Amino acid sequence: MMKLTTEEQEMLEGKYGKAAKKSMEILTTLGDIFEADSMVKVYGVQIAGVSYANLGEAGLEFLSEMAEDGKVRVLTTLNPAGMDRENWQALGIDEEFAKNQNRVIDAFAKMGIITTCSCTPYLIGNTPHYGQHLAWAESSAVCYANSVIGARTNREGGPSALASAITGKTPNYGYHLDANRYSQVHFKVNTPIRGTDQFGILGKIIGDKLVEIGKKIPYISGIPIATIEELKSFCASVATYGGTALFHMEEITPEYDRYPKPSDNVFKIDKDDMNQARLELIDEDSEIDFVSIGCPHASIHEIATIAELLEGKKIKKEFWITTARPTKKLADAAGYSKLIEDAGAKFAADTCCVVAPIKGRFKGIMVDSAKACYYGRAKNKFKVRIGTLEQCVEEAIK
Ligand code: F3S
């Protein structure tokens, strides 16, 4: 059994209201299953399962109950929803769905959650520092927080993340503990890796191998430098293909030399492996009628690049830039949005090409993200093609 503080015990007994009681019940059950000895304080929370398409009426009912007296104690943001909250009509979302999606967001808002819907909370102010404990849910963001920032979080489900938001606590197990943060397998990269597409492809190679050999935490060497955009793409991909929530990258991530480097289980990755994996992310007979950039959500750097590439041009295919609303506001202020929208491309803030209900609406999607390839095929039944950000923009103009 877990050792609880007086306050935690009182929450469990209902002294802090119904939602706090329910939350503490969820967290102590989880803690007992995973043999946590105590709770830890979380600095911030990120909640997934926000799309009405995933939650349905049952999920909404749970949220509404929690919202009756539940209030969050720590900074909490949401994962992408099923639609752009301001621009849903232009993106072809039906009214009934929009109504239900807004009911979900309203329930979160009532609890004091910041209703920014983004898979890159770390780019928009829900930004932890090294060593801080979190309760985050989105797999790519969990991987980024653990690996790139050196914060500590398990991959939470929707209810446990909400429970942590309401109590400010999470059970101390899994990635919160040093003992579970050692790498188990070493990947030596022997070829230059550049751009969001290549980092995504690398994530697929490593993720696939991890699944094959039944390991979770890779140590990666041979990458001399990486941008935030490349790392977010890598995180999304390695989490998708390998279920990875933590990696260490030599000279790049903050904990790479905190634990011993694995000496057995060493794999090399070369140019041929990269070429082969790229081919696996290109459907031969793909006819592209949809281009989307921003999986994970586009940064202001990426938007600036797209604006520059689109200036004075007209696109011929449906082209979405998916991003967090605060990033979109920054793009508005900088004048990037106007250049992009004048070219005919659309912003899809709060949502993305995977969570929006667009199954079957397009034949083929071109992206710079290996994660979007996976879900484009699996969830939305699109043919897919991966390319650099520049190639994606060219495809939209072609
Ligand atoms: Fe984010 Fe959607 Fe990709 S949630 S990581 S943009 S699939």
How would you describe what is shown here?
With 398 residues, the chain is α/β, with parallel strands linked by helices. The chain has three domains: 6-178, Aconitase, domain 3 (2-Layer Sandwich); 182-280, Aconitase, Domain 2 (3-Layer(aba) Sandwich), CATH 3.40.1060; 290-397, 2-Layer Sandwich (Aconitase, domain 3), CATH 3.30.499. Helices cover 42% and strands 16% of the residues. It has 14 helices and 15 strands. The longest helix is centred in the middle third of the chain and has 19 residues, at 195-213. It is globular. The model has no long low-confidence stretch (mean pLDDT 96). The structure holds FE3-S4 cluster. FE3-S4 cluster binds at residues 79-80, 119, 140, 236, 295-297, 322, 352, 354-355, 371-372, 375. FE3-S4 cluster (F3S) is lined by residues 79-80, 119, 140, 236, 295-297, 322, 352, 354-355, 371-372, 375.
Write a compact overview of the structure shown.
With 398 residues, the chain is an alpha/beta fold. It has 14 helices and 15 strands.
The CATH first-level class of the largest domain comes to Alpha Beta
Bound molecules: FE3-S4 cluster
CATH fold call of the largest domain: Aconitase, domain 3
Number of helices: 14
Shape: globular
Spell out the blueprint of helices and strands.
Layout: H1 6-13, H2 18-33, E1 39-41, E2 44-47, H3 52-69, E3 75-78, H4 95-110, E4 114-117, E5 134-136, H5 139-149, H6 158-167, E6 169-171, E7 185-189, H7 195-213, E8 218-221, H8 228-242, E9 248-249, E10 266-269, H9 271-280, E11 290-298, H10 300-310, E12 318-323, H11 325-334, H12 336-342, E13 346-349, E14 364-367, H13 370-378, E15 383-386, H14 389-397
Parallel strand pairs: 2-3, 2-5, 3-4, 7-8, 7-10, 8-9, 11-12, 11-14, 12-13, 14-15
Antiparallel strand pairs: 1-6
Helix pairs in contact: 1-2, 2-3, 2-6, 3-4, 5-8, 7-8, 7-9, 10-12, 10-14
